Amino acid sequence: MRARPQGTITRGTTNPNRLRRVDRWLAGPPAARLRRSGDPLVVDLGYGANGRTTLELFDRLRRVRPDVEVLGLEIDPARVDAARPLERPGLTFAHGGFEIPTGPRRPVLVRALNVLRQYSEAEVAGAWRTMLVRLAPGGLLVDGTCDEVGRRACWFAVSPEGSCSLTISLRLAGLERPGVVAERLPKALIHRNVPGERAHDWLSTLDDAWARAAPHADFGVRQRWIATAEAVRDAGWPVRDGPSRWRLGEITVEWPPPSGVFD
Length: 263
Hints:
Layout: H1 20-26, H2 31-36, E1 41-45, H3 52-62, E2 69-74, H4 77-83, E3 91-95, E4 109-113, H5 124-132, E5 140-146, E6 152-158, E7 164-170, H6 187-190, H7 198-212, H8 221-234, H9 243-246, E8 250-254
Parallel strand pairs: 1-2, 1-4, 2-3, 4-5
Antiparallel strand pairs: 5-6, 6-7, 7-8
Helix pairs in contact: 1-3, 7-8
């Protein structure tokens, strides 16, 4: 008898195109992992009450790797049944949780957006460990949160080998300051945006650099964001990528994994 999936049922709310920012990133910097994989399996964990965002992920990754296979996993069987009409060659839906029941196959990418948000901070390390052992060597787990319409998003990317990064992606038009993403920090950080914590230092540094870059707004909001990214990099933060990603409203920084994940 198959074991009960690991996890609890989430609220399941989602909207079409809500996860476009993380999908765009997955089709960007991490795409080399997918291209060189001998088994291009991707798992969308906890897609919610509507499988539409899993279909969107499939369509976007097919541009990177035409033979990619995407599996949407949900612990609620009713949600799996509801998503089945969206299936097509290369896209399937199944019952499962953090244990990622893909048999002997090991996914190269796992997207778990707006899933751990509903857990306690103490449960994050265990959930990560459970998912990471199922990844293929060189694979990547993406855990994060976004707002209801996908204009503000923040996610961790972590590999089984222990490397970790944190990405912020924002709609730049009308942006008051980068720190507005605070309410969308991943669960491992949401309660750590307080003085003395790295998350607070990072958002404060971004806000200060954004304010100082105000004169660049005369050349457009993207130029202001690029100047902000350059300033925090020059201040010593381990910022990845460059203007081609920054102009999208993204910024990625190397980040130590939460305690307990690789201890």
